[in-house]
Amino acid sequence: MNGSSKQAHIFKRKSNLVRNVLITLSACASLAALVFLFCRFIFPRLPAGAVRSLRKSWQAYDYESVYETSKGILNTAPFNNAALTYHGYAAFYLGVSSLDKMDEQNYLDEAINSLRLALLDAQNSLKPQLSYMLGRAYFYKNTVSSYYYADLAVKYLERAKTLGYKADDIAEYLGMSYAALGMTMDSIASFTEALLVRESDTLLFSIAEQYYKAGQNAAAEQYLFRVIKECDDENLVLKSRMLLGSIYIAEEKYEDAAKEFAGVLEKNANSADAHYQLGVLYEKQGDMVKARSEWRTALRIQVNHRGALEKLTD
After folding, report:
1. Residue 197 CB partners (closer than 8 Å, separation 6+)
2. Which of 41, 138, 192, 298 could covalently link to 308 via disulfide, CB atoms 3.0 to 4.6 Å apart?
3. Domains with residue ranges and CATH for the chain
4. Among residues 168, 165, 118, 173, which one has the least CA distance to residue 149?
C-alpha cells in the first residue's frame, strides 16, 4: 500500500470512528430523554395544592379524605411516592378502625400494596417509618386472614428497628408476631423489652403465656399473680386464673387448680373452658364419672368445644 492509499485508509477509519461516536452519543441522549419523560409520566411531582390538601386532611386525622384524595392522584400517577405513602397510611388506619372484617381486610391489602410500592422509591430518611407501618399492616393482616403473615410482620418490624426507627409499641408487636410463629423465646425477649417502655396487664399476661409454653411455669406464675392481684379487667383476670389452673394441673397441685377453676365459675358459670379443665383435673385424679360429666356440661354450653368433643369421643 502506497503512502496516499494509507492516508486515505486512516482518514476513512477516523471518519467511521467519529460517526460511531456521534451515533452512540445521539442514542444515549435519546434514551436519556425517554427515561426523563417516562419518569415525569410515572413519577410526576404533585401540584402544591394537592400536597397541601393531603397534609391538611392528615393533620385533621381525616383519613377518609386522605384516602380518597390520594386514590384520585394514583389513578393518573400510579407510582407517585407521596400519594402512595399517604394512601398506604390512610388505608391502614381505616382498616384497623373498621368494624367489618371484609372491609378491614380490603383496606389492609391496599395499605400493604401502597406501602410496598412506596418503599421501592422512598428516600432513605423515610424507609424506617415505612418499614414500621408495613410491619404493622402485616401484623393486623395476620389477625384477620386465614393465612399467616406474622413472618412478614417480623421482617419489616425488625428492619425498622435495624434502620433506627423508634416506637413505643414496636417491641410488643414483635412479641405478638413471634408468638404467632411459635418462636417462644424470641417472643419473651420482645415482650420483656416492651415492658421497659410501657407496662400493661395484657403484656404481663402475654409474657406469662409464653413462659408457660416454654415450660417455665415458675416464671409464668409470677406474672399471673400480678395480673390477678392488680388488674381491673375481669375477663383478663379470669383468663389468668384459667392459665394458672392449667399450670397447677401440670404440677399436680390439684387442690390449687380446683380453686382457680371454681373461682372462674363463680364469676362466669357458663365458662365452657373452666368445666373442661375441671374434667381434665378429675381425669388426672382417676374419677372418670365426674370428668365426663364436666365435659358434657362444657358441650352444653359450647356445642363445638374441641377439647370436650375429643375427650368424649375417645
Report:
1. 168, 171
2. 298
3. 50-122 (1.25.40), 270-314 (no CATH)
4. 173
DSSP state of 126: T
d(CA 131, CA 137): 10
Taking CA 143 as the corner, what is the angle to CA 142 and CA 144, rounded to the nearest 5 degrees? 95
Q: For residues 96 and 220, what is the distance between their CA atoms, to the nearest angstrom? A: 31
Of 135, 154, 134, 137, residue with least CA distance to 145: 137
- Which amino acid type is present at position 189? A
Q: Which three cell numbers stand for residue 306?
A: 374441641
Question: Maximum distance among all alpha carbons in the chain?
Answer: 119
Q: Which three cell numbers stand for residue 46?
A: 404533585
Q: Per residue in 89-145, pLDDT tens?
A: 999 999 999 999 999 999 999 999 999 999 999 999 999 999 999 999 999 999 998
Burial state string for 260-285 with b = 16 or more CB within 10 A and e = fewer than 16: bbebbeeeeeebbbbbbbbbbbbbee
Asked whether the whole model's pTM tops 0.70, one would answer yes
Long-range contacts of 43-49 (CB under 8 A, 24+ apart): 43/77, 43/79, 43/80, 43/81, 43/121, 44/77, 44/80, 46/73, 46/77, 46/80, 46/82, 46/83
**Do 176 and 203 touch, CB atoms closer than 8 A?**
no
